[in-house]
Write a structure and sequence with these properties.
Family: Belongs to the iron-containing alcohol dehydrogenase family.
Protein name: Iron-containing alcohol dehydrogenase
Strand order of the largest sheet: 1-8-5-4-2-3
Radius of gyration: 20 Å
Organism: Desulfovibrio desulfuricans
GO molecular function: alcohol dehydrogenase (NAD+) activity; metal ion binding
Bound molecules: NADP nicotinamide-adenine-dinucleotide phosphate, fe (iii) ion
CATH superfamily of the largest domain: Dehydroquinate synthase-like - alpha domain
Strand content: 5-15%
Order of helices and strands: EHHEHHEHEHEEEEHHHHHHHHH
Pfam family, one: ADH_Fe_C
Distance between the termini: 40 Å
Number of strands: 8
Helix content: 40-55%
């Protein structure tokens, strides 16, 4: 038995938790940089709640509401400049993974005395960050409890992670009411991202009894929601379960990292604009099939959490949620296999795939 586990984020959950627990926010600083996307935080009540909580505490704020999906390096620099200009001393990131990840990068960039060269954003040795508070409004990425900020890396034509314990959110507020108006597509794609985190965590060389416990619980809760999700009949309790499962899966990957599924998925997002969670879901069954050839027991454990007998049942379940799949050319598939084979998270795989294995998975999924 040899493993490390840590989770520094304080999690507060429940309907109305942000305003009810405004006092916890007071400890974070005097003036927030609120980081959101363009629309949804206004519509789902999360921004209003944040403004109420800040007002209760007498805290000021600057609003940066320009984060796009798959945030760019430039967006992170723009937010950091707004943070410095507004003399903000903490980040309050509200939204899906995109605003949360962008907010984390802003907290790092703004805290640095020396300017960072945009070309070196992923390689700079950061030594400080402003505190980050996260309010997820999708149930999928788990970014509210991870040390990862994933940005579009145009120089390398992929998505790249800044992984730094300094950007673990200090505090996360989980309120499932914010997700009640999420579209079917975003609900499905984000839930599958969470599933992918929990499953990949169980297929990581860094898995432990602690991360496995959380991953199993997460997979069971997600599996309980797939029926109503497909039918479009998610209850309030289902929404709460999805959010909790997503945060649990975030706690898993904070400790295990992701694996080949995310490594391959980044090319689907970068080159084909396929949503992050959908990209993972398209690849997950074939990666499970590959892993099952060498670690059958481990894969059976994962399937058992969903009450499934074999990988074919799992493929049918995800196929029912994802609908018609994309088809890619042999050249595209070879290119993505080549790129994924060089990604850092390949090293996390319990059964390490070679480039040909990755190509076989990609072909079976999307050829
Ligand atoms: P997202 O890009 O944050 O949001 C997708 C869409 O959903 C946006 O149009 C957004 O609108 C909308 N939206 C968000 N919350 C909503 C709500 N409550 N109601 C209605 N619409 C809502 O998508 P995501 O899947 O959550 O995040 C994906 C990103 O997270 C990717 O960049 C991925 O690489 C990253 N990620 C990070 C980690 C990590 O550990 N850090 C892990 C996995 C994935 P607005 O733009 O108007 O807000
Ligand atoms: Fe993910």
């Amino acid at each position: 038995m040899k493993f490390a586990y840590s989770m520094p984020t304080r999690v507060v959950a429940g309907e109305g938790c942000l305003v009810e627990n405004a006092a916890a926010l007071k400890e974070m600083g005097k003036k927030a940089l609120i980081v959101t996307g363009r629309h949804s935080a206004r519509a789902n009540g999360s921004l209003d709640d944040a403004l109420k909580a800040l007002a209760l505490n007498g805290q000021g704020y600057v609003l940066f509401d320009k984060v796009m999906s798959n945030p760019t390096v430039q967006c992170a620099f723009e937010g950091a400049a707004a943070m410095r200009e507004g003399k903000c001393d903490f980040v309050l990131a509200i939204g899906g993974g995109s605003p949360m990840d962008a907010g984390k990068a802003m907290a790092l960039l703004a805290a640095r005395d020396e300017a960072v060269d945009p070309a070196a954003i992923f390689s700079t040795a950061y030594t400080a960050a402003y505190p980050v508070v996260a309010v997820p409004t999708t149930a999928g990425t788990g970014s509210e409890v991870t040390q990862y900020s994933i940005l579009t890396n145009d120089a390398a034509e992929t998505k790249t992670s800044i992984a730094n314990p300094l950007i673990f959110p200090r505090l996360a507020y989980l309120d499932p009411r914010y997700m009640s108006g999420l579209s079917q597509t975003v609900t499905v794609n984000t839930a599958i991202d969470a599933l992918s985190h929990a499953v990949e965590g169980m297929l990581s060389v860094r898995a432990s009894a602690i991360s496995d416990g959380m991953a199993r619980q997460s997979i069971e809760m997600l599996a309980g929601c797939f029926g109503p999700m497909r039918e479009g009949t998610l209850s309030v309790q289902n929404r709460a379960d999805l959010l909790c499962a997503s945060t649990l899966a975030g706690m898993v990957i904070a400790n295990t990292g992701t694996t080949a599924v995310h490594a391959m998925g980044y090319s689907l997002t970068y080159y084909k604009n396929i949503d992050h969670g959908r990209a993972n879901g398209l690849l997950l069954p074939e990666f499970l099939a590959f892993t099952a050839k060498h670690a059958a027991g481990r894969v059976q454990n994962i399937l058992a959490c969903m009450g499934l007998a074999d990988v074919a049942d799992f493929a049918a379940l995800l196929g029912g949620l994802l609908g018609k799949r994309e088809t890619l050319t042999p050249e595209e598939l070879a290119h993505y296999a080549e790129k994924a084979s060089k990604a850092g998270n390949i090293g996390n795989c319990l059964v390490r795939p070679e480039k040909d294995d990755l190509l076989a998975v990609l072909k079976a999924a999307l050829g």
